[in-house]
Amino acid sequence: MTDSAQGRSEPEGSGYPGEGRTLEKGNAGSTARKALGDPATRGRTTIADGVVEKIAGLAARDVVGVHAMGTGLSRTFGAVRDRVPGGGRSVSRGVKAEVGEVQTALDLDIVVDYGVSIVDVARAVRENVIAAVERMTGLEVVEVNVAVGDVKLPDEEDEDEREQRVQ
């Protein structure tokens, strides 16, 4: 970080060793690159909770055995919101993320298909979510809590199908 970014204001060429605030004639380009360092360290990247939630939601839905995301209430509200023009499907439904500077923690609410091993599905969800979030954001995922709130039985209608018949 530069001195001005840390709240200190020093005049040009103030004499801090290793800081290239003044440029000399002739080799200005090489001096500036050495003094400023790697371009990747010249700023800060922040990632919003919603970004991590979307990544995790999509990764969880990719797992075989995950029927839906969210609690019963959130799925009901989501089905209504999906019907509103411009509402669209919420890929982050059933996902809550807490994002820090270098780490994140996730809570997921899922509905599994009947007949699958819940333990295996939860493990696969964790593995897929951790891989996707860490690869795409560079954040360390410290925990992924999976709450199975329901089981989709073969003879049950989806909430989406019920909504379409009621219209």
Number of strands: 4
Distance between the termini: 58 Å
User: What amount of the residues lies in strands?
Assistant: 15-25%
Show unreliable segments. Answer: 1-23
**What summary fits the major beta sheet?**
4 strands, mixed
What are the secondary-structure elements, in order, as H or E? HHEHEEHEH
Q: Compute the gyration radius: what is it?
A: 24 Å
**What structural category characterises the helix and strand content?**
alpha+beta
- Helicity range of the residues? 25-40%
Question: Average pLDDT, to the nearest integer?
Answer: 78
Query: What is the number of helices?
Result: 5
Gross morphology: elongated
Short structural summary:
The chain is α+β, with helices and mostly antiparallel strands. It contains 5 helices and 4 strands. Strands 1, 2, 3 and 4 form a 4-stranded mixed β-sheet that branches.
What does this structure look like?
The structure is a single chain. This protein is an alpha+beta fold and 167 residues long. Helix content is 37%, strand content 20%. Strands 1, 2, 3 and 4 form a 4-stranded mixed beta sheet that branches. Helix 2 (49-61) packs across helix 4 (118-137). Residues 1-23 have low confidence and may be disordered.
Write the layout of secondary structure elements.
Layout lengths: L27 H9 L12 H13 L4 E4 L2 H12 L11 E5 L3 E11 L4 H20 L2 E13 L6 H8 L1
Helix pairs in contact: 2-4
